[in-house]
Specification:
5-stranded antiparallel β-sheet
């Protein structure tokens, strides 16, 4: 037997006893580590604070830029207003600015003014603005000759003294002039250098201006020279720099000191605003630039004592304290280690004895379960196995541990070897449960079924150290399971071939199983009756009969018959016969057969037997009706031939008469030409009539030859509209095709259907006045059924609507008869044979549809064609 080595009876501790010097050494190391941790954490906290200060500085600049961008959008809207309105009255300008609530939205905002560009010598352009101003007359200030003036013509909110603002030439202020010229060249907002709130006096706190150009075009011209020429003026907004900077620092006012300059020079003359005190000893400082509107601002930022007070220095002390506490714990643990080690030695001896006892119990349990154990341990040189495991594997001779794994693999059944390898790989790679059932072939040729279970041992990194488990012979169990599977397969095949319903009940007459070859025979869905009693789901009479049959079978055995009628899922009442039997393993089985078809055939045979004379009488009446229809058809054909002879005679008489006149030699050349034209016209009419007659003949002969298939009616309508577009344009008319979103294909002959639509559209064009539209409207009509398809309540309907002369009174139905034309009495009635609509009706009726015509309210006519939807399960949803 291959077994692991015995566990030693004693465990000797080889660890040397540690003295007090080890505790002292650990304490010194702990103090040094605490100091190093404090210094490192302090450096990390300082670096984190420095990075946060840089982020705060970036946030200040980003906030300032965002506010400038937002106000530029406001100016862009004002520029659009001025471009559209040309001249804005003072009251409208003030109302517009007040509605924007700029003072609340943009702290530091002073006023927004409109400067109008006036060339030298064109002071008269100022009159339109002066006339719309409130107060006294104003002129351009300061006086003097300049090539271009940019006087302020509107300002809001209005200052106390308008005379100091209106008329002020913005180009006279160098800072504003540079900003205005840049705005005109760039086609976008410009930022000015610092200046005074009123440029003509130089009074007031430092301000800056945002200047937006106003062009005569909707969009700035692409070329710089074109932008210069199209410039009409500017929208100028003044901001107090100090208040603007204060608003940017909201929430950071006590934490940051900020100085805003117009240039890199830190002279006071270049400083726009300052917030806080410049701290020379500040721990953090930063410089940032903001480029906006062709100008640059320079920010100098420094931290304040309040900002530095927020630095979390306490984190360094917490880390140092934590390291010191951990070190003290280590010192205590080192002192306790020696005592613990001695106690562990004594405990190991007791555990060794307990392990020997448990090993003996495990051996006895495995022998009782007829299982053996195995252990694959590469460190020990192979696989170990118990005597029981070797017997299961058919190993009689002794084999070294290094060869036992190869012996086991050599006896695996060839068909199971790949599955076993895959299961082992899944367990080793993904820790999937190792539970395999496979076959082995013993040396004597006998095949046995085995079950192997195991679990891999792994180190801390997850690497496999070995695998151990149990092995058992399950040949008898496997053969029994295979026999049960074959029996179940035969039962399933028999049930599949059974045309009847099969229900299984437990001892309490609850549904626990069913089989249905046609679930339409069920009275409800299986989820509604499974696990319930018959009384809970069936009508009381049917449930009582089934329960009574189960009671009788339980008491007396045998078979009980039950007949009943139920409404099934198919929507019809069905007759059933049930047979209830007892199942030996417990419960009942009910086999139910649908007798509805049998009853119907039986009743039909009885009816045919009893009513044979009535059937003969019905067939006689059908023959008489068919004869009457044939007589009517014969009379109709005679009438058709008579009408045809009359219609053909008229153009023939005209041809002969004008031909005789044309042969007269005394006839003038103009008169002879007129005769030839009339002959040609009559010939064309005769040719058209013959063509229509041929269509009629083809229609009658093709009733059984039409290639009926699903057709996309919308595509047919599009083709007809494209073909008739030129004919409609010749009369100055338009064709409109309206397609509903919900449509379906129709069952028709595509070419014949196109001929029907073409005839209706060309008739609408011919009978409509010049310049009026013709509308084709196609969609699904619900609530309508056709004789050819009475089971469906929707059809496809095409309406052809015109604004022509309409239909004659009481002639809507006769229009579809041969040789009938609408309004033939009118002198300008379009020519025609009167066969087109007759052909259309024959085609439509051949498709199983119908066609009708009616007058529209307000003039014109509408022709409706209804066809049944093709049952192909496809619905088109293309919008026209």
């Amino acid at each position: 037997m291959n077994t692991p080595a015995d566990i030693p009876s004693e465990i000797v501790s080889a660890a040397p006893r540690k003295g007090g010097w080890m505790t002292a050494l650990v304490a010194v190391a702990v103090v040094a580590l605490a100091l190093a941790s404090w210094g490192g954490m302090r450096a990390r906290v300082l670096e984190s604070a420095r990075q946060q200060f840089a982020l705060d500085a970036d946030a200040v600049v980003a906030t300032a830029e965002a506010r400038l961008v937002r106000f530029a959008e406001v100016q862009r809207g004002a520029a659009g207003l001025v471009r559209v309105a040309a001249t804005v009255p003072t009251s409208d300008w003030e109302a517009y600015v007040d509605a924007l609530r700029l003072t609340r939205a943009f702290p530091g905002f002073s006023s927004v003014s409109l400067g109008w560009r006036i060339p030298q010598g064109r002071h008269d352009q100022l009159d339109a603005w002066v006339s719309g101003a409130v107060g006294e007359y104003f002129d351009i200030r300061p006086a003097g000759d300049r090539p271009i003036y940019l006087p302020v013509v509107r300002v809001a909110p209005a200052p106390m003294d308008l005379s100091r603002v209106l008329g002020f030439d913005l180009l006279s202020d160098p800072a504003r002039r540079v900003a205005a010229e840049h705005a005109w060249r760039a086609g976008d907002v410009a930022l000015s250098a610092h200046t005074a709130v009123r440029g003509d006096t130089g009074e007031g706190a430092p301000v800056f201006s945002l200047v937006m150009p106003v062009y005569a075009t909707a969009a700035p011209p692409l070329d710089e020279a074109q932008r210069e020429a199209a410039a009409m003026g500017v929208i100028s907004a003044d901001f107090f720099a100090a208040e603007f900077l204060e608003s940017v620092l909201i929430g950071r006012g006590r934490l940051l000191a900020v100085q805003l300059y117009d240039s890199r020079d830190t002279e006071l003359a270049e400083r726009l605003a300052v917030r806080g005190v410049d701290e020379p000893s500040a721990r953090f400082g930063a410089e940032r630039q903001l480029h906006f509107g062709g100008h640059a601002w320079f920010f100098r930022l420094s931290s304040t004592p309040a900002y530095e007070a927020l630095i979390p220095w306490w984190q360094a002390y917490v880390v140092a304290a934590g390291v010191a506490a951990l070190g003290a714990l280590v010192v205590v643990l080192v002192g306790m280690l020696g005592a613990t080690r001695r106690r562990a030695d004594r405990l190991a001896k007791r555990m060794t004895a307990a392990l020997r006892e448990k090993d003996q119990r495990l051996r006895l349990a495995l022998e009782g379960a007829q299982e053996g154990w195995w252990d694959w341990d590469p460190a020990r040189g192979g696989m170990l196995a118990s005597d029981r495991a070797l017997k299961i594997l058919g190993v009689v001779e002794r084999h070294p541990a290094s060869q036992l794994l190869a012996v086991w693999r050599s006896r695996l059944h060839p068909q199971d070897r790949a599955g076993v390898d895959a299961a082992i790989a899944q367990h080793l790679d993904f820790d999937a449960p190792l539970d395999m059932r496979y076959r082995i072939v013993l040396p004597d040729g006998l095949t046995r079924w085995l079950r192997t279970r195991g679990k891999a041992r792994r180190d801390a990194t997850g690497a496999v150290l070995g695998v151990a488990g149990f092995i058992a012979d399950i040949t008898a169990e496997q053969l029994a399971a295979e026999a049960q599977t074959r029996l179940a397969a035969r039962h399933a095949s028999a049930l599949a071939a059974l045309p009847d319903l099969l229900f299984e009940f437990d001892e309490d007459c609850r549904y626990v199983g069913y089989h249905a070859s046609d679930e339409g025979d069920l009275a409800m869905a299986p989820a509604d009756f499974m696990g319930k009693r018959s009384a809970d789901v069936l009508p009381p009479a049917v449930a009582a009969a089934l329960d009574e049959a189960c009671r009788k079978v339980a008491a007396n055995g045998g078979v009980e018959h039950v007949e009943y009628t139920l409404n099934t899922l198919s929507g019809e009442a069905q007759s059933f016969e049930g047979r209830v039997v007892r199942v030996e393993t417990g419960g009942f089985l009910c086999i139910v057969r649908n007798l509805s078809e049998f009853r119907r055939v039986e009743q039909e045979l009885t009816r045919h037997r009893d009513n044979l004379a009535d059937l003969v009488a019905e067939q006689t009446i059908d023959l008489l009706l068919a004869k009457d229809a044939a007589d009517r058809a014969s009379r109709g054909k005679s009438e058709f031939l008579a009408t045809l002879s009359h219609e053909l005679r008229t153009p023939l008489h005209a041809i002969l008469g004008f031909a005789e006149m044309g042969l007269n030699r005394d006839l003038s050349e103009a008169r002879r030409t007129h005769c030839l034209q009339r002959i040609e016209l009559s010939g064309q009419r005769l040719l058209g009539m013959v063509s229509d007659l041929l269509d009629v003949a083809r229609t009658e002969s093709a009733h059984g030859k039409l290639a009926l298939a699903p057709v996309d009616w919308a595509m047919v309508c599009r083709d007809v509209v494209d073909e008739c577009e030129a004919l409609a344009q010749a009369k100055g008319m338009r064709l409109h095709l309206e397609l509903a979103e919900h449509r379906c294909p129709v069952r028709a002959d595509g070419l014949r259907l196109q001929q029907v639509v073409m005839n209706l559209v060309t008739n609408a064009i011919k009978f409509s006045p010049v310049g009026t539209p013709v509308v084709l409207r196609l969609g699904v009509r619900e609530g309508v059924s056709l004789p050819a398809d009475p089971m469906h309540g929707e059809v496809m309907e095409l309406e052809v609507i015109d604004q022509g002369i309409g239909l004659p009174e009481d002639a809507a139905e006769r229009l579809f008869e041969a040789f009938v034309r609408g309004h033939p009495e009118l002198p300008d009635s379009p020519p025609g044979s009167g066969l087109g609509l007759s052909i259309c009706r024959q085609f439509v009726e051949a498709f199983g549809g119908r066609i009708a015509a009616a007058n529209r309210d307000g003039g014109g006519a509408v022709f409706r064609v209804q066809l049944p939807c093709a049952q192909v399960g496809v619905v088109t949803g293309v919008k026209a």
